[in-house]
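Human: We require from you a protein record containing the residue sequence and its fold in token form, and nothing else.

Assistant:
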Amino acid sequence: MPPGNMNLTSDSGDATFPTLVEITDEELEEIGMVLGLRRHFDLSVYKAKCMKRRVAIRMRSTRCLDASAYCSLLQRNDRELDLLQKTLTIHVSQFFRNPSMFEKLRTDVIPGLFMARERETGFPLRFWCLGCAGGEEPYSLAILLREHFSGNLRRTRTVIVGTDIDPETLQGARQGEYNEDRLRDVPMEIRERYFQHQGTRFVLAPDIREMVTFLQGDITDVGGYLASDLVSCRNTLIYFNRHDQEKILHGIADCLPAGGILVLGKSESLVGSVRPRFTPVCPVERIYRRI
């Protein structure tokens, strides 16, 4: 494997610490082979540009000056393999990100879901957050339901599930402890009602944590998707190539009933052959209904 280009001066001017190395397609493919063999992690489904930058961040952290040296490190160091996989899959989130989307769910979407389920007793109403990272998204849904649909919750069994590929991230989500920057869109009265300030952290109330079940899952494993009534997959598809975006969206369509809801991120949209399977509820907020 040829060495990547490098500059031995960092952004801060430290001549002993390299800047981000430029990684070639061939080098990324070789790193992907190591991940595939050692962790059964398929790097090829992700956008190469994004993955190259994240690999380069780990290379700089380990002071590897080229991709060949980093491949050698991965082959002998399980801890670095774990750290690389975490870096490649991490998605930073926050509570009630894009508040207008949650308001649209409250006023125009969730009431209809409860009404439909109350006519079809025997099945829970399931909300599923794909790529849930630290749990902010499913917990935001739990707070929304507790605040505005407490009566419906008493009448209708409701399940909220968050899935992510990284087990350590999920363990942190279960603990429900967050830095203040994750709460910047949370109204003060909601913050005071559902979070306890402990030192520099905010701890989510136990009754909200108990509303959410966290499971490990690979978003590309569409055969393992959960039957759901609402799927939130926000700011996750942007990391995948077009072919796998379409595969994931078809998987979501298959797990939703007619009338089920899909929520995407503001920078995402329906692609290719999956478009005819949905109709817009609110294009601005990227909310769609399964046909």
The longest strand covers residues 158-164. The chain has a mean pLDDT of 91. Strands lie at 125-130, 158-164, 177-179, 195-198, 201-204, 212-216, 230-233, 261-264, 278-282, 287-290.
